[in-house]
TrEMBL record:
Pfam families: Acatn (PF13000). Coiled coil: none annotated. Keywords: Membrane, Transmembrane, Transmembrane helix. One of its GO terms (biological process) is acetyl-CoA transmembrane transport. InterPro entries: AcetylCoA_trans_1-like, AmpG_permease/AT-1, MFS_trans_sf. This is ACATN protein. It is found in: Membrane. It comes from the Eukaryota. The chain crosses the membrane at residues 6-22, 43-67, 87-106, 118-139, 151-175. It is a multi-pass membrane protein. It comes from Todus mexicanus (Puerto Rican tody).
């Protein structure tokens, strides 16, 4: 139902944009920077070789390492500890209005000459929330009872997710604002696509590595099997 509703919203809004939005009549720049795919990639390579762009790419590719594990693994660990997947999915519903409102609020603080300041200010709070998520996973088994989990537990999870969304969107909107600000208007689409691709990659590779490291770094104990650490999948199966 959730997917069906938002699918319908996407269809309606994109159709309205197609029917009602008119193209700007303003004159476009006469200078054409790119003529085809080959020229576009040559331009991308020339952009990425710039020292400032290289420094920014290094920053954005490593900035999310500190909270990648908390972001990628927390939900899986809560399910592993017995929290129903359906309940966690329901908690995403009240996040939707927050996700709509947050960019509107945060954009006021990223509209100035230094949008990355918001990114830097949000990072320590997001790192602290990673510790809070770890505590949440540790606390989950202690509040579980035969009937499931108490209401106050879900309230704590919901508040944790809400605070996490605030820090996440503060960093996300700040990066988008910065990318838009520094992109050359003549090649804005190409420039923005390059920076946004690097930004997306900087969020995805740490999460992938974190998920891959979960098993090797998990300490397990085997009940009733002497001299077995259950450190590997094969040992745990035995």
């Amino acid at each position: 139902d959730f997917l069906f509703f938002w699918g319908a919203v996407f269809l309606i809004t994109t159709t309205l944009v197609a029917l009602l939005k008119k193209e700007s009549k303003e004159l476009t720049p006469t200078k054409e920077e790119t003529k085809g795919i080959t020229d576009t990639y040559r331009l991308l390579f020339s952009i990425i070789k710039m020292p400032a762009v290289l420094t920014f790419c290094l920053l954005i590719l490593t900035a999310k390492v500190g909270f990648s594990a908390a972001d990628a693994v927390t939900g899986l660990k809560l399910v592993e500890e017995g929290v129903p997947k359906e309940h966690l999915a329901l908690l995403a519903v009240p996040m939707v209005p927050l996700q709509i409102i947050l960019p509107l609020i945060i954009s006021k603080y990223t509209a100035g000459p230094q949008p990355l300041n918001t990114f830097y200010k949000a990072m320590p709070f997001r790192l602290l929330l990673g510790l809070e998520f770890a505590f949440l996973v540790w606390w989950t088994p202690t509040v579980k009872h035969e009937g499931g989990f108490p209401i106050y537990y879900y309230i704590v999870v919901l508040l944790s997710y809400a605070l996490h969304q605030i820090t996440l969107y503060s960093m996300y909107v700040a990066i988008m604002a910065f990318n838009a600000k520094v992109s050359d208007p003549l090649i804005g689409g190409t420039y923005m696509t390059l920076l946004n691709t690097v930004s997306n990659l900087g969020g995805n590779w740490p999460s992938t590595v974190a998920l891959w490291l979960v098993d090797p770094l998990t300490v397990k104990e085997c009940a009733g099997a002497q001299d077995q650490t259950c450190g590997t999948a094969a040992a745990a199966e035995v």
